[in-house]
Design goal:
It is built from 19 helices and 25 strands. By secondary structure, the chain is α/β, with parallel strands linked by helices. It has three domains: 236 residues, 4-Layer Sandwich (Glutamine Phosphoribosylpyrophosphate, subunit 1, domain 1), CATH 3.60.20.10; 205 residues, Glucose-6-phosphate isomerase like protein, domain 1 (Rossmann fold, 3-Layer(aba) Sandwich); 144 residues, Glucose-6-phosphate isomerase like protein, domain 1 (Rossmann fold). The chain has an eight-stranded antiparallel β-sheet with strand order 3-2-4-1-10-9-11-15, covered by helices on one side. A seven-stranded antiparallel β-sheet has the order 5-6-7-8-12-13-14. β5 and β6 form a beta hairpin. The longest helix is centred in the C-terminal third of the chain and has 23 residues. The N and C termini lie close together (11 Å). Bound molecules: fructose -6-phosphate (F6R).
């Protein structure tokens, strides 16, 4: 999604803006642009479609736009094609106001007609341009005042960065539903849609609240609520180190993040298993024993991989904790008329904490009177602030668009929740708890072992990288793991793939199996191994080639049926998705690599989807 960065201080702004935009590249974009205030009553703007490198060339790495205050933007097109002209910033016809925007102005047609009637000329196909023209229309020498009047008329979701030619060191930021942060040092100040853009300069950041307007000047940040009252928002200290947001010698962020998983699993489990190893303690998330005891049903919402982490959790919660669980796509939650009962805990899973559909689901759940637990990675994000309880996933910054480590951290956090709830199930005895917790603690070491043995995965990727279509099959928890594996493959390699419950193929999809079709069978659950073996036979009979991912103790069963067999160490059945994910992420990675794809920034995708 779009990225915003702003700087005001005593250094040249354009190189700082370009650096910030580079840090935001991972979010996905198709054009970029910068406006710098010349300090002499003019705004200097450059925009370029395509990669940020085009903008860097056009501005000679920022040196042609001289000035110490400015705003920059990476655009992910919604209204209007990704052309130079539609790229942000959008400068009003007077040349005096320039803005960058993330989100959608839902009533832009109406506002545009209103402004056209007043003789305003438009230069782009975007919804954003109405905002710059509207602020310009109201501008009478006081930017804050003009912004307030314009914002009053806007409907939709937006994060805005605004500069005016005649206010040479001021940036105004506005936030309604789109993520936006501000920060300041002694002689400078920053605005950004994501901490990674400014982490190099400051670590104490202010997360703006909905409907806040912020005035940013060198050395100061002043936030106002929608009634114009000054707000005292406490800065949050970001403890991510800059190294963690860089590639550290790996060819791609995704590969680095895949290899970080043993550390991420350790960090997500740390302090949440009691010293005696016999119990889970989630009090840090606000989940006391009394609260956990009162939970009768769990309703999970999330999007994409976060939804898949929810599907894993459903199997765990129902089979181990014996608690009813429903999983709904966050984008459908509001339209599914959820039936909530007393004792329902809604769990919103999100890496970014800013996914628009997940925020909407959270608000819907709260409006139904349900308590909400956020399982979130980004501290201070909207979802973490609006939920009743927050269980952080501690994955650190995830830069690759396709998630790997954040997904595993979500599964690990949800596993802890399932075990914590199981403690109140009289059917789960102490031995069972000790067994699963014991294996959970060993999991980071096992993950290391899996990641060290990459040769079979590379072999599989080199043999199958040019298949037109891939089917993933599994049953139970293996099916949940297959859903995520299939998404991973298709999003970064652009190979069409689908995940099916093993028993379901024969109800229709088996007609698509033909000689050479690749079927990836996920088979780590011993109880279901024979069933999945039968499903493998069904597809092999029809000419499919089979890549089997299984455990060491089941490997013998698949030696004949799998064309390539990848094994992972044995662990407790409940935990198998955490190990299955690793070779399957690597398979997607090496398949995409063999296909020459842009792995960290797959086409059309955005890291944080802040529009509904
Ligand atoms: C897939 C992926 C997406 C996200 C989804 C939710 O690799 O990254 O499917 O999982 O967009 O994002 P968050 O977790 O930020 O809410």
């Amino acid at each position: 999604m779009c990225g915003i960065v702003g700087f005001t201080g005593d250094a040249q702004a354009a190189p700082i803006l370009l650096y910030g935009l580079e840090r935001l590249e991972y979010r996905g974009y198709d054009s970029a642009g910068i406006t710098v205030n010349s300090g002499a009553g003019t705004l200097l703007t450059e925009k370029a479609s395509g990669r940020l490198a085009n903008l860097a060339v056009r501005t000679d790495n920022g040196t042609t736009l001289r000035g110490t205050c400015g705003i920059g933007h990476t655009r992910w097109a919604t209204h209007g094609e990704p052309t130079d002209n539609n790229a942000h910033p959008h400068v009003a016809s007077s040349g005096k106001i320039s803005i960058v925007h993330n989100g959608i102005i839902e009533n832009y047609r109406k506002l545009k007609d209103w402004l056209l009637d007043k003789g305003v000329k438009f230069h782009s196909e975007t919804d954003t341009e109405v905002v710059s023209q509207l602020i310009d229309y109201y501008y009478e020498g006081d930017l804050l005042n003009a912004v307030r009047k314009a914002v009053y008329k806007l409907e939709g979701s937006y994060a805005l960065g605004i500069v005016a030619a005649d206010e040479p060191s001021t940036i105004i930021g506005v936030r309604k539903e789109g993520p936006l942060i501000a920060a300041y040092t002694e002689d400078a100040a920053y605005l950004a849609s994501d901490v990674t853009a400014i982490l190099k300069y400051c670590r104490d950041v202010i997360y703006l609240e909905d409907d806040s307007i912020v005035v940013i000047k060198p050395g100061s940040v002043t936030c106002y609520n929608k009634y114009g009252k000054v707000q005292n928002l406490t800065p949050v200290t970001i403890d991510w180190d800059i190294e963690a947001a860089q590639k550290g010698g790996y060819a791609h962020y995704m590969l680095k993040e895949i290899y970080e998983q043993p550390r991420v699993l350790r960090d997500t489990l740390a302090g949440r298993i009691t010293e005696d190893g016999g119990s889970v303690n989630l009090s840090e998330a606000g989940l006391t024993r009394e609260i956990l005891r009162s939970v009768r049903k769990v309703h999970i919402v999330g999007c994409g991989s976060a939804y898949h982490a929810g599907v894993v959790a459903k199997y765990q919660l129902e089979s181990f904790a014996r608690i009813a669980c429903e999983v709904t796509l966050a984008s459908e939650f509001r339209y599914s008329s959820p039936v909530v009962q007393p004792g329902t805990l809604c769990v919103v899973i999100s890496q970014s904490g800013e996914t628009a559909d997940s925020i909407a689901a959270l608000r819907e759940a709260k409006s139904l009177g349900v308590s909400v637990l956020a399982v979130v990675n980004v501290r201070g994000s909207t979802i973490s602030r609006e939920a009743d309880y927050v269980l952080y996933t501690n994955a650190g910054p995830e830069i690759a668009v396709a998630t790997s480590k954040a997904y595993s951290a979500q599964v690990a956090a949800m596993t802890l929740l399932a075990i914590a709830l199981a403690e109140f199930n009289s059917g789960v005895n102490r031995e069972s708890l000790l067994a699963v917790l014991g294996d959970l603690r060993k999991l980071p070491d096992l993950a290391e072992k899996v990641l060290a043995d990459v040769a079979p995965v590379q072999l599989a990727a080199s043999r199958y990288f040019n298949r037109g279509s891939v089917f993933f099959i599994g049953r139970g928890l293996d099916y949940a793991a297959a859903l995520e594996a299939s998404l991973k493959l298709k999003e970064i390699s652009y190979i069409h793939s689908e995940a099916y419950a093993g028993g379901e193929l024969k109800h229709g999809t088996i007609s698509l199996i033909e000689p050479g079709t690749l079927v990836v069978a996920v088979a780590l659950c011993s109880k279901l191994a024979e069933k999945i073996e039968s499903n493998i036979k069904e597809v092999k009979t029809r000419g499919a080639e089979v890549l089997a991912v299984t455990s060491e103790s089941l490997a013998g069963d698949f030696a004949d049926s799998g064309d390539i067999v990848i094994t992972v160490p044995d662990t407790h059945e409940l935990l198998t998705p955490l190990l299955a994910a690793l070779p399957l992420q690597l398979f997607a990675y090496y398949t995409a690599l063999n296909n020459g794809c842009d792995i960290d920034k797959p086409r059309n995708l955005a890291k944080s989807v802040t529009v509904e």
